[in-house]
Write a structure and sequence with these properties.
By secondary structure, the protein is mainly β. The protein has one domain. The protein has four helices and 15 strands. A hairpin with a 3-residue loop joins strand 12 and strand 13.
């Protein structure tokens, strides 16, 4: 029911926002979208099979095994877009800025054979600001507050704040550099890390992208609809975990912090349709770590350093599937290097929509290219 209410509220908000966005008309009198970003809703699931926790530790013997089932419902809605023209060395530039609202409901069920299942939830709403200066630079800023709680047993929500700032420089269409900073919990701790990125190759063609600490990817589009990618990226998080099973030795402590981390390396296949994208990924899960921390022993702003349980199971297989719904229309971004870069920054810092809006520059008919260029000037139904 809560998922249904969230989707209903999201759709209502999107419809209102999108209706306001369609009020702009160009000089031809044709209605066109205001935003360059499409609204999106993404659903995906992740599975990692159970592994034995081979340990003489009391907690490890109680837990027995460790596996994961994970699900995500996320959305992205553009709420503000502004364009402006400028002149730079006798050449007109086209700059713009964007504000997007994001939302996430993330559910995790760690599977321990020795204790009943705990259903952990992370939910939040964030804001992203993207500025394209019309030359070679794009700024990306995100603030994403969220709360975690153990839904199986009564526990108070635990507030956290993730944030990222990135400066992206497009030296050429096929060469991009990025630098910045990020605070994330995907590495199983509250870490502040530098962000350094390098991409060789165009975003709409074959490219190699290394975005530390997010991911490294080799992208190979094979047609307008199909995209293959070899990648490696971290998976993880921090969650409020009930002490109902008395895993922590002080029974009056109601909750502690459960953290997980793994490094996934595998193959992802995307199918891109007009209104939705589908993807499937599988590969090897390595460097797995799970840790239990108590807040009492880790006060302050520094990373958690004192834990009362830690395990590092070996490598195993994982699988992930998902669907991305693309709602409404957006202005054409065809062959706009900076807007391609903005789309890539947005996708790489979310649930991973694999740049759903960027058209792959495979062998396309010239008529298709002409239609893409004039798409903004014709009137159409948005939904």
């Amino acid at each position: 029911m809560r998922f249904f209410l969230l989707i209903t509220a999201t759709w209502a908000f999107f419809s209102t926002t999108h209706g306001l966005a369609q009020g702009a008309y160009d000089s031809t009198g044709a209605k066109r979208p205001r935003h360059y970003f499409q609204s999106q809703i993404q659903l995906d699931g992740y599975r990692k099979r159970n592994q034995d926790l081979k340990t003489n530790n009391r907690i490890g013997q109680t837990l027995e095994t460790y596996g994961l089932r994970q699900g995500n419902l996320s959305f992205l809605i553009p709420v503000y877009t502004r364009d402006w023209q400028g002149v730079d060395k006798d050449k007109t530039i086209h700059a713009n800025e964007h504000v997007l609202v994001t939302g996430l409901i993330h559910t995790l069920r760690p599977e321990f054979k020795g204790i009943p299942d705990h259903r952990l939830r992370k939910s939040g709403v964030g804001v992203r600001y993207i500025k394209n200066n019309g030359k070679k630079s794009v700024w990306f800023i995100e603030v994403a507050p969220f709360v975690t709680r153990d839904m199986t047993y009564k526990s108070a929500p635990y507030f956290r704040l993730a944030s990222t700032i990135i400066y992206s420089y497009n030296a050429k269409r096929w060469l991009n550099f990025r630098m910045g900073a990020t605070k994330s919990f995907a590495w199983g701790n509250r870490l502040y890390l530098p962000f350094i990125g390098l991409r060789i190759g165009r975003l709409d063609k074959f490219n190699v992208s290394i975005q530390f600490p997010r991911q490294a990817t080799i992208n190979l589009p094979v047609s307008h609809h199909w995209l293959f990618a070899l990648y490696t990226k971290p998976q993880g998080g921090m969650y409020n975990f009930s002490n109902h099973d008395t895993l922590y030795y002080l029974p009056y402590v109601k909750t502690f912090q459960f953290t997980r981390y793994e490094l996934n390396t595998g193959l992802r296949v995307d199918y891109r349709g007009k209104r939705l994208n589908l993807f499937l990924a599988t590969g090897f899960c390595t460097r797995t770590s799970l840790t239990f921390y108590s807040d009492q022993k880790n006060a302050g702003a520094a990373p958690y350093r004192v834990y009362f349980y830690n395990a590092t199971p070996g490598a195993t297989l994982y699988s992930e599937t998902g669907i991305v719904f693309k709602l409404g229309k957006a202005r054409s971004i065809y062959n706009n290097t900076n807007l391609y870069d903005a789309i890539d920054l947005n996708g790489g810092n979310g649930a991973g929509d694999q740049n759903a809006q960027i058209p792959m520059d495979t062998k396309r008919q010239q008529n298709d290219l002409n239609l893409e260029e004039i798409r903004d000037l014709v009137e159409y139904d948005d939904l």
